């Protein structure tokens, strides 16, 4: 049986899944202790024919009141200019508000975590996991 402490949750999202952070950032429930975005496309929603920002799903709409620590792992060589632009916009806004945000940027990394790298030996993956462990201990009290 999976033992989960419902009072200590860290949300992790990859790519377009980061728009799910919007509700957590807007409402900031006490049980959400941290957010982790891996190549996050904050506010990204696929429209009928294009990618667009949708305010209710955009974490930027509530960044002014952000109190939840956020870790972002950004891929510098991400093929999507929108993902880079939107993650940078979120990071910049959070820093301007002096939010608890930590950024890990890997200049040559592609969008996917494994990319062309060997997943087990990837410096980016190892750095992300090290920060995740530290973040979980710091904000949840343990790393499991």
Structure characterization notes:
It is a single chain. This protein is an alpha/beta fold. It has a single domain (9-140), classed as 3-Layer(aba) Sandwich (Rossmann fold), CATH 3.40.50. It contains 3 helices and 6 strands; from the N terminus they run βαββββαβα. The strands form 2 sheets. Strands 1-2-5-6 form a 4-stranded parallel beta sheet, sandwiched between helices. It has a two-stranded antiparallel ribbon with strand order 3-4. Helix 1 (21-27) links the parallel strand 1 (9-14) and strand 2 (32-38).
Strand and helix map with partners:
Blueprint: E1 9-14, H1 21-27, E2 32-38, E3 44-46, E4 51-53, E5 70-75, H2 81-96, E6 101-106, H3 123-140
Parallel strand pairs: 1-2, 2-5, 5-6
Antiparallel strand pairs: 3-4
Summarize this, please?
28% of the residues lie in helices and 22% in strands. It has 144 residues and is α/β, with parallel strands linked by helices.
> Which fold does the CATH topology refer to?
Rossmann fold
CATH architecture: 3-Layer(aba) Sandwich
User: How does the helix and strand content classify structurally?
Assistant: alpha/beta
Total beta strands = 6
Question: Can you summarize the main beta sheet?
Answer: 4 strands, parallel
Could you give the order of strands across the largest sheet?
1-2-5-6
Low-confidence stretches: none
């Amino acid at each position: 049986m999976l033992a989960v402490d419902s009072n200590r949750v860290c949300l992790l999202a990859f790519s377009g899944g980061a728009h799910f952070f919007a509700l957590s950032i807007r409402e900031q429930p006490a049980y959400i202790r941290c957010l982790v975005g891996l190549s996050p496309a904050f506010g990204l929603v696929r429209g009928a024919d294009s990618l667009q920002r949708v305010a209710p799903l955009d974490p930027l709409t509530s960044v002014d009141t952000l109190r939840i620590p956020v870790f972002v792992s950004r891929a510098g060589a991400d093929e999507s200019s929108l993902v880079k632009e939107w993650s940078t916009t979120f990071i910049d806004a959070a820093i301007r508000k002096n939010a608890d945000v930590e950024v890990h940027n890997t200049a040559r990394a592609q969008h996917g975590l494994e990319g062309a790298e060997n997943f087990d030996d990837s410096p980016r993956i190892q750095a992300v996991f090290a920060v995740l462990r530290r973040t979980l201990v710091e904000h949840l009290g343990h790393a499991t």
